[in-house]
Amino acid sequence: MGNIFAYIQWRGDLTLSESPFGEVDNLILSMLSYFDFKQIIPEPGQGEITVEQAAHKVFQETGVPDPPRTASNSQESLRWLLYLMARSRRYRRMKLSSRVDLFDAANAKQFDAICIHISSRQLYLSFRGTTDDLAGWKEDFLLTCMPEIPSHREAVHYLIQTASRYPEKQLLLGGHSKGGNLAVYAASFAPVDIQKRIKAVWSNDGPGFQEELLASDGYRRIAHAIHSIVPKSSVVGMLLSHDEHRKIVDSLQIGILQHDGFSWEIVGNHFVELDALTSGSLRVDQAVRTWLQQMSMDERRQAVECLFDVLYASGATTLSEIRRDRLRTMTGSISRMMELPKESRERIIEFLVLLKHSTNRLNLESRMARHRKALSDTSCRPQGL
C-alpha cells in the first residue's frame, strides 16, 4: 500500500490504453491544480503545454526537487508530484491549458482551474480547492448559508467556455475539497448538451449542498455520473447534504488531517476502501448539523460575516499568518470580538468550541485505532524474531 507518489512510481509506466483512467488518476489531477502554474500553463484560448514541458519550465529555474519529508498538501509535495508525473509514461504527454486564477478578497472569491487533456478524446477539468487564504475559507463557510457562492458562477462559466472550445471531446470534472463541490455544481448547471458529454464528476472530500440543489432537474440529470470519495474520518466532505453514494477510503493521517489527499491509501489502481466512516466522523457531522439547524439562513450568514470580521481584524489574510503569530492575532481578534453584539459573540464562541472539541475527538479516536492495529500486528508476529 502507498499514496499517490507510490502509485505514480509503480504504475506510471502504464499508458491509459494499458490501464484505463480511474479514481486514483482523478485524485492526482485534482491535486495538480493546487500547484501555482502562473506564467506556465497558457490562459484560455492561448494554446497548450505538456506536463513534461511545464515541469521543465518550473525546474530549470528552481532545480530538481527533493522528495518531501512528509506527504502533505504543501508546495514541497506538489513540486514532487509534478516531477514524478513529468517522468512517467502515463502523464508526461498529457497537455495542460486554460489556466484561470481569480482572487477577490472583498467579495470572498477564490477560483482556480486548469484543463488537462488526458487523451485525444477526453478532457479533465480540475477545480482547485481551498488554499491558505482567508477569502477562500470564508467562501467555504458561506456554503452553509447561500445557495450559490461567487466561485460557483465562475465554475459554470469555465465549464461552458472550455466545452465550447473543445466541442468534440468527452468531459471529466473533478476537484479536491471545495474543488469537488465546484465540479459537481458546474456539472449540475451546465446546459443539457454539455451534460450529455460529461462521463464522470469526482468530488474528493468536497462539501455538499443545500437541499434545493439536490432536488434540481440539472443535478438529477447528472447524478448518475457523480463519484464522492471521503476519508474515514471525514469532516469537510460531510458538510451540508449529499445525495450520491460515498466511497470511504483509508488514510495514513489522523483525524481532520485525513482531508489531505496525499494521505489516502492506495493498493494497485484503487483506494483502500472501508465499510463505514469512523464513529467520530459521524458525531462531528451530527454536531455541526445540529448547530446549523438552530439558526436561520440569515443568522448563519451573520455568524460567518462576524467570524471573519474577527479574523481579519488581526491583520492576517491567511491561516498560516494566524498560526505563526497567535498572540498578535488573538489581540486584534479579541478587540473586534468585544465590539460585536452579545448574540454574535456567543455564536462564534459556540462554533469554535464545537470545532475544537470535535477535532480532538477525531484525533483521539484515530490514535486509539492505530494503537489497536499496532498491538494486533505485534501479537501476530512469530515469537523470537
Describe this structure as you would to a colleague:
With 385 residues, this protein is α/β, with parallel strands linked by helices. It folds into two domains: 4-277, Rossmann fold, CATH 3.40.50; 284-376, no CATH class. It is 47% helix and 15% strand. Strands 1-2-3-4-5-6-7-8-11 form a nine-stranded mixed β-sheet, sandwiched between helices. It is globular, with a radius of gyration of 21 Å.
What topology does this entry show?
Layout: H1 4-11, H2 23-32, E1 48-50, H3 51-62, H4 75-87, E2 95-104, E3 109-117, E4 122-127, H5 134-142, H6 150-165, E5 170-176, H7 178-188, H8 192-195, E6 198-204, H9 211-214, H10 217-222, E7 226-231, E8 246-249, E9 266-267, E10 270-271, E11 273-274, H11 279-293, H12 297-312, H13 319-324, H14 326-337, H15 342-379
Parallel strand pairs: 4-5, 5-6, 6-7, 7-8
Antiparallel strand pairs: 1-2, 2-3, 3-4, 8-11, 9-10
Helix pairs in contact: 1-4, 3-4, 5-12, 6-7, 11-15, 12-14, 12-15
Index terms:
nine-stranded mixed beta sheet, Rossmann fold, alpha/beta, 2 domains, globular, 15% strand, 385 residues
> What class would the helix/strand composition place it in?
alpha/beta
The CATH class name of the largest domain reads: Alpha Beta
Q: What proportion of the residues is helical, as a percent range?
A: 40-55%
CATH level 3 topology of the largest domain: Rossmann fold
Count the domains. Answer: 2
For the largest beta-sheet, the strand count, sense and barrel status come to: 9 strands, mixed
Beginning-to-end CA distance, first to last residue = 24 Å
Question: What are the segments in which pLDDT stays under 50 over at least 5 consecutive residues?
Answer: 377-385
H/E element order: HHEHHEEEHHEHHEHHEEEEEHHHHH
Kindly provide the radius of gyration, computed on alpha-carbon positions and rounded to a whole number of angstroms.
21 Å
Q: Write down how many β-strands occur, each being a DSSP E stretch of 2 or more residues.
A: 11
Strand order of the largest sheet: 1-2-3-4-5-6-7-8-11
* Proportion of beta-strand residues: 15-25%
CATH architecture identity of the largest domain: 3-Layer(aba) Sandwich
Number of helices: 15
Global shape: globular
- Quick check: average pLDDT? 85
